Amino acid sequence: MKRIMVIGVSAGVGKSTFAKRLGEKLQIQVHHLDTFYWKPNWIEASRDEFVQAQEQIVDADEWIIEGNYTDTFQVRVDKADMLIYLELPLYVCLYRVLKRRIMYHGKTRSDMTEGCPEKIDWAFIKFILTTYYPRRSKMAERFRSYDKKVIVLKNRKEIKAFLEEGVLQWRLES
Fold first, then answer.
1. What's the CATH code of the domain at 127?
2. In terms of residue numbers, what domain contains 71?
3. pLDDT digits (tens, 9 = 90+) for 79-100
């Protein structure tokens, strides 16, 4: 079975892009949690709706689920075979969030619910700045408690190598 969680230290770390590329390599459908959490016009789904959407996915034999949403982490991690964690530097994450805002001005990204055009505000930047380091510590601690394969990728070179060589190696091992 191939059930993979793609998570990251922060917004802008590259979870969506990585998951799309991984899905193409493995020929596995990718599910972006943002599309289940956000309804059009940036309205949040209820916790029950959000959990139910994930529960409908995790029983399948193969999936890639991308996104953090630590409040519902257990729904996914219990069924996952592997976690891939992206931990690029804070300045890279901030740069990418700003770049994404410029590139998708007035548009909705493919990994987001239609009707949620790209936006950025001080609250979102503050969220990134205040959660980056605590999340980095929590994730390392959390991984020690899981009986799962965890792959940590900390830079573009490691990400590229995993997508080019690591995927093939993992296929041979499974």
1. 3.40.50.300
2. 2-159
3. 999 999 999 999 999 999 999 9
